[in-house]
């Protein structure tokens, strides 16, 4: 049932008062980071450590092995056991008497509709839709494509798949038919779940046409599709032989589907990487390991427990959406906020803070890009100051490297909140390096992702695969195998490619593809992707370090630095910059930029070219497409344009600005 926002706020306020009256919250005492790290990395102790971390997880049958090394380097966690992700997220909380607790808060900036789902209501909806899928022949081990906007039915669909033991592959709703078709071809789904439309600030995306074209491209023109008809945009011209109406099918269900226990090593979901470099890869991971990872991270890193509210400003099509909207908060019995909107422009840069106040958000997860956009539109914090943020205990930043200036801005505006710039990947499934709330909380160093999370044995290597022990010396970041629970199991349908791409450079290590360094205190600095470390006249330069210097300068809203081919020096850095104020003297600020880089990085990092742009090319998840900028700077006739790009219209504008610079 959809409600007015003021009615929902009244319900939440009443629930909050009841909690305060009848329950005293118990918080975890801080535990030893060093002890967790030691136990998680010691081959003699790590299995006992992760077994202890999985004790809060419900197992229908206990596992035979915590870590199965029989097919190394393809390690598997919790083999022989039986569990279920959706049961652990929903049913066990209902059975424990918490069915009336709020599980999901949904709000759409476009339709102005809001919805609240208790755990009991969510269990009912998920079990009913699981029956809908089962009636269409979906069963354990089948794959299901979900191509949907940020609506509650998407969350319900994902959990319904998990309830059956089906393997979902969520495809971001902004993808064109060709990309969706490629994923259909690769995953070979039993059914597709979609909606009539996705909503953007200035447009409506009709999904059915995309789905129909994609099914032909993917070789499944007659596959069944379930469609959620949105009130704001109903698709009238559909083939009813292929499309099943979500509401009509749900109305037919008289009894929901029971939970299907699955092996701990059973595939959980397939998720394609956002593809900032190279082609997107279909990553899959297993249920048992991811459950243990969720339980650990949500407790020690994010401090989410029963009735705690978490708001992840992301999309379900990305790993952050999977982890911190759909599953993570619910594993711990918390409340998840699902938002169809943007950090700015829907309606303004104060919307995130308004939602924090309205829903009493305890933990906020947001990409640095989102914060920079808010900072650009509300630098003085006038919109932010209009809201009561006392509930907000922590802000977590990931998805790309966060520049120190953005960290400082957040700290200045929200000084009471714990700031956590954490680093991880779609491949790793949860943070590799982070700060902590229920382990020791370390002093923050802007620009650093703090210290390695327990279970991740991180080292820095040089180009000859020698481990670098000298502090602050950059190299490629590698992780010693086996990786902890939650790490990817492989590439869907091609585990050999997984071994060749990730596990043999060198053998026995996972190659992250990121470059960075570790300081004398053990803090990790992720500087760039390894292909973003450029060699200028024999000097290795991190473009991330130059970006850090630039974003520290007043007047610069955002920037990206890439390498440009140079016949004399090999490569030289070039900067693409968005100004805070378009009216400033560009020649003057360019001199300041060049002087600052020369002083703080070195004369060898001379920044000869600075391109001023209105926007930077980004993926839908907010990652800057540096390969595209590199191609533009090198005058590549057909620049690499990933299908995940948010706005193709920025490309000709950037090319125009760059060509104008060359002609000066």
From TrEMBL:
<dbReference type="Pfam" id="PF00501">
    <property type="entry name" value="AMP-binding"/>
</dbReference>
<comment type="similarity">
    <text>Belongs to the ATP-dependent AMP-binding enzyme family.</text>
</comment>
<dbReference type="InterPro" id="IPR045851">
    <property type="entry name" value="AMP-bd_C_sf"/>
</dbReference>
<feature type="domain" description="AMP-dependent synthetase/ligase">
    <location>
        <begin position="96"/>
        <end position="482"/>
    </location>
</feature>
<feature type="domain" description="Acetyl-coenzyme A synthetase N-terminal">
    <location>
        <begin position="45"/>
        <end position="89"/>
    </location>
</feature>
<dbReference type="Pfam" id="PF16177">
    <property type="entry name" value="ACAS_N"/>
</dbReference>
<dbReference type="InterPro" id="IPR020845">
    <property type="entry name" value="AMP-binding_CS"/>
</dbReference>
<dbReference type="InterPro" id="IPR042099">
    <property type="entry name" value="ANL_N_sf"/>
</dbReference>
<dbReference type="InterPro" id="IPR032387">
    <property type="entry name" value="ACAS_N"/>
</dbReference>
<feature type="domain" description="AMP-binding enzyme C-terminal">
    <location>
        <begin position="546"/>
        <end position="623"/>
    </location>
</feature>
<dbReference type="InterPro" id="IPR025110">
    <property type="entry name" value="AMP-bd_C"/>
</dbReference>
<protein>
    <submittedName>
        <fullName>Acyl-synthetase</fullName>
    </submittedName>
</protein>
<dbReference type="InterPro" id="IPR000873">
    <property type="entry name" value="AMP-dep_synth/lig_dom"/>
</dbReference>
<dbReference type="Pfam" id="PF13193">
    <property type="entry name" value="AMP-binding_C"/>
</dbReference>
<dbReference type="GO" id="GO:0050218">
    <property type="term" value="F:propionate-CoA ligase activity"/>
</dbReference>
């Amino acid at each position: 049932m959809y409600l007015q926002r003021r009615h929902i706020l009244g319900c939440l306020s009443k629930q909050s008062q009841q909690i305060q009256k009848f329950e005293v919250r118990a918080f975890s005492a801080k535990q030893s980071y060093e002890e967790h790290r030691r136990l998680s990395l010691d081959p003699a102790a790590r299995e006992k450590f992760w077994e202890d971390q999985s004790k809060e997880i419900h197992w229908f049958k206990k596992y035979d092995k915590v870590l199965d090394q029989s097919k190394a380097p393809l390690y598997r966690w919790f083999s022989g056991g039986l569990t279920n992700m959706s049961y652990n997220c929903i049913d066990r909380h209902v059975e424990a008497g918490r069915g009336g607790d709020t599980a999901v808060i949904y709000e759409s900036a476009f339709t102005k509709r809001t919805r609240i789902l208790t755990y009991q209501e969510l269990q009912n909806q998920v079990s009913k839709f699981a029956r809908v899928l089962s009636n269409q022949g979906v069963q354990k081990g089948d794959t299901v494509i979900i191509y949907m906007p940020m609506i509650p039915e998407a969350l319900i669909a994902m959990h319904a798949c998990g309830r059956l033991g089906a393997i979902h592959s969520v495809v971001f709703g902004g993808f064109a038919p060709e990309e969706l078709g490629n994923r259909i071809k690769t995953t070979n789904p039993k059914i597709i779940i979609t909606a009539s439309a996705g909503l953007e600030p200035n447009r409506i995306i009709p999904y059915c046409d995309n789905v129909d074209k994609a099914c032909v491209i993917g070789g499944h023109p007659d596959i069944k599709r379930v469609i959620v008809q949105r009130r704001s945009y109903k698709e009238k011209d559909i083939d009813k032989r292929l499309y099943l109406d979500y509401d009509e099918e749900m109305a037919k269900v008289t009894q929901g589907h029971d939970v299907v226990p699955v092996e701990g090593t059973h595939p959980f979901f397939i998720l394609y990487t956002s593809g900032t470099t190279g082609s997107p890869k279909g990553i899959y991971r297993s249920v048992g390991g991811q459950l243990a990872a969720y339980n650990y991270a949500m407790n020690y890193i994010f401090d989410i427990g029963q009735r705690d509210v978490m708001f992840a400003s992301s999309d379900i099509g990305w790993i952050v959406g999977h982890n911190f909207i759909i599953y993570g908060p619910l594993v711990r019995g918390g409340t998840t906020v699902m938002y169809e909107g943007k950090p700015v422009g829907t309606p303004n840069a104060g919307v995130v803070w308004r939602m924090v106040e309205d829903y009493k958000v305890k933990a906020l997860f947001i990409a640095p890009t989102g914060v920079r956009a808010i900072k650009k539109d509300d630098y003085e914090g006038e919109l932010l100051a209009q809201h009561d943020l006392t509930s907000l205990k922590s802000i977590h930043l990931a998805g790309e490297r966060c520049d120190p200036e953005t960290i400082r801005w957040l700290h200045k505006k929200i000084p009471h909140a714990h700031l956590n710039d954490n680093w991880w990947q779609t491949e790793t499934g949860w943070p590799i390096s982070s700060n902590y709330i229920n382990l020791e909380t370390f002093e923050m160093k802007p620009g650093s992702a703090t210290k390695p999370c327990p279970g991740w044995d991180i080292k820095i290597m040089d180009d000859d695969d020698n481990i670098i022990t000298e502090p602050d010396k950059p190299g490629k970041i590698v992780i010693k195998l086996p990786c902890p629970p939650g790490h990817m199991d492989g590439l869907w349908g091609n585990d050999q490619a997984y071994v060749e791409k990730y596990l043999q450079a060198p053998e026995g290590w996972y190659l992250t593809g990121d470059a960075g360094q570790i300081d004398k205190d053990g803090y990790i600095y992720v500087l760039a992707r390894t292909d973003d470390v450029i060699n200028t006249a024999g000097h290795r330069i991190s473009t991330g370090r130059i970006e850090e210097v630039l974003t520290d300068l007043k007047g610069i809203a955002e920037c990206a630095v890439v390498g440009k081919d140079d016949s004399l020096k090999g490569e030289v850095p070039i900067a693409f910059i968005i100004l805070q104020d378009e009216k400033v003297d560009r020649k003057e600020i360019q001199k300041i930029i060049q002087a600052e880089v020369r002083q703080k990085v070195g004369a060898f990092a001379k920044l000869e070219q600075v391109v001023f742009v209105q926007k930077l090319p980004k993926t839908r998840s907010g990652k800057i497409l540096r390969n595209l900028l590199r191609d533009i700077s090198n005058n590549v006739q057909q620049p690499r344009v990933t299908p995940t790009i948010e706005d193709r219209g920025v490309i000709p504008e950037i090319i125009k600005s760059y060509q104008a610079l060359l002609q000066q």
